[in-house]
């Protein structure tokens, strides 16, 4: 299953890549691939902007506006003027 | 230490007694899981954060990190029968790994804090933590290493693959790294979608029922029965079908935007209602047109909200589709209810 093409905010700066391969291990949608000991963006359209790659990229070669692709969260964020939130887990009274 | 039903004694270690957990799930765990899936007590379904043992772990056993949502924790221990391992449970406020990682509660700070507060470095020789891959959005592996001295190893996405991953010397096959959204994955999410949407659907149905008595001749209870009841049934039936069939048929519904998929499903439903029972759709063309608009808008909205439960929608994509979908849904709903109200008066007594 594929979502909308050409919308994601993923940016990759090849010059900064140190070839550690971390992005290929954390991405749940195989957006990155290793080529000649450097990462390349192989499937940009599959990116869901979870932010795992950017957060685990030590040389900071990856940038993405991380967020949750949740329409309800966007609506609640609009109504409460907080911006998109992941609000279905509010009211947790745990441990 | 409080003894909980899923514990099996304790392991005496240098850092004190570490509760041992059962690798087999009991009836109570199963019932708890079913209830959580239906949204009952879902926000209080958690285990105390801290260190646990599975089997008889020693200084060289792997340390597996998990969230303190009991559903997540149970899936992990349920996959570990016959294994010796440590489980480090983070305080994610009872939220699952992926969602908590998105919020940052399954995150770098909490891992560093939990490693230090448990004294993990005194009972294991290896300086490695195995995290579920979906914890990665909240964790910077290189920062955890710098601050705690523990290396983060990202394990597979699915816990079923964990034994194979451990046996292979902590190497994940590419397939283990990919998140899926199979029929089964989608189906288990349906109950919570139903429960969360039900109160709005019921309110809408009640409003329609109440208004249906209006007409040129004043308020008529006979019309509530004849027009209102089938109308309320249409609303509830359409909500139910959209919430069940939307996730089920997701890959086969046309379009990529969830609102389009839902709209298409809505047209299909309106068609089905017209064929199955003309009574609900109303005998007049006005009411038929009204219901096509209302059912399509409703289904589009319900399926659009399933983006939050899906495993592959981006925030940018959701914002893009909402920019056209929400105005369209609103317009269809307003025009639809307008036509329906007019229909009550035009048909008269």
General description of the model:
The complex is a heterodimer of chains A (95) and B (349). With 95 residues, chain A is an alpha+beta fold. Helix content of chain A is 20%, strand content 13%. In chain A, strands 1-4 form a two-stranded antiparallel sheet. A two-stranded antiparallel ribbon of chain A has the order 2-3. In chain A, strand 2 and strand 3 form a beta hairpin. Chain A is elongated, with a radius of gyration of 16 Å. The relative contact order of chain A is 0.20. The mean pLDDT of chain A is 92. Chain B is of the alpha/beta class and 349 residues long. Chain B has 2 domains: 173 residues, Rossmann fold (3-Layer(aba) Sandwich); 164 residues, no CATH class. In chain B, 53% of the residues lie in helices and 10% in strands. In chain B, the strands form 2 sheets. In chain B, strands 1-2-3-5-4 form a 5-stranded mixed beta sheet, sandwiched between helices. Chain B has a two-stranded parallel ribbon with strand order 6-7. In chain B, helix 8 runs antiparallel to helix 9, helix 9 crosses helix 10 and helix 12 runs antiparallel to helix 13. The longest helix of chain B has 33 residues. Chain B starts with 6 loop residues before the first strand and ends with a helix. The interface between A and B is large, with 46 and 58 residues.
């Amino acid at each position: 299953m594929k979502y909308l093409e050409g919308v994601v905010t993923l940016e990759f700066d090849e010059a900064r890549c140190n070839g550690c391969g971390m992005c290929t291990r954390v991405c749940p949608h195989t957006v990155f691939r290793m080529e000649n000991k450097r990462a390349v963006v192989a499937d940009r359209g599959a990116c869901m902007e979870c932010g795992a790659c950017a957060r685990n990229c030590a040389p900071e070669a990856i940038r993405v506006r991380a967020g949750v692709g949740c329409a309800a969260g966007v609506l609640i964020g609009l109504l409460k003027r907080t911006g998109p939130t992941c609000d279905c887990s509010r009211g947790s009274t745990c441990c | 230490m409080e003894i909980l039903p899923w514990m099996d004694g304790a392991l005496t270690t240098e850092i004190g007694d570490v509760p041992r957990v059962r690798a087999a799930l009991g009836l109570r765990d199963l019932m708890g899981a079913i209830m959580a899936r239906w949204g009952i007590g879902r926000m209080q379904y958690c285990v105390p954060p801290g260190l646990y043992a599975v089997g008889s772990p020693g200084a060289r056993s792997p340390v597996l990190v998990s969230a303190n949502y009991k559903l997540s924790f149970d899936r992990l221990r349920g996959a570990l029968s016959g294994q010796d391992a440590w489980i480090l449970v983070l305080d994610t406020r009872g939220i699952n790994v992926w969602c908590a990682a998105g919020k940052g509660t399954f995150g770098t700070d909490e891992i560093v804090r939990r490693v230090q507060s448990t004294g993990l470095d005194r009972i294991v020789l290896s300086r490695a933590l195995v995290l579920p891959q979906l914890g990665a959005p909240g964790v910077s592996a290189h920062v955890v290493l710098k601050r705690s001295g523990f290396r983060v190893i990202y394990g597979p996405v699915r816990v079923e693959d964990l034994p194979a991953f451990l046996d292979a010397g902590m190497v994940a096959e590419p397939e283990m790294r990919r998140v899926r959204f199979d029929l089964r994955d989608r189906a288990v999410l349906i109950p919570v979608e139903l429960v969360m949407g039900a109160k709005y659907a019921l309110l809408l149905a009640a409003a329609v029922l109440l208004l249906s008595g209006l007409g040129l001749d004043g308020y008529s209870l006979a019309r509530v029965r004849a027009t209102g009841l089938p109308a309320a049934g249409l609303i509830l039936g359409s909500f139910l079908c959209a919430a069940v069939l939307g996730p089920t048929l997701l890959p086969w519904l046309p379009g990529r935007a969830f609102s389009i998929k839902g709209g298409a499903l809505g047209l299909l439903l309106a068609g089905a209602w017209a064929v199955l029972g003309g009574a609900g759709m109303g005998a007049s063309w006005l009411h038929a047109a009204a219901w096509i608009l209302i059912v399509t808008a409703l289904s589009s909205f319900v399926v659009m909200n399933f983006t939050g439960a899906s495993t592959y929608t981006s925030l940018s994509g959701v914002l893009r589709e909402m920019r056209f979908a929400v105005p369209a849904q609103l317009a269809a709903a307003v025009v639809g209810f307008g036509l329906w109200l007019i229909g009550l008066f035009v048909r008269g007594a």
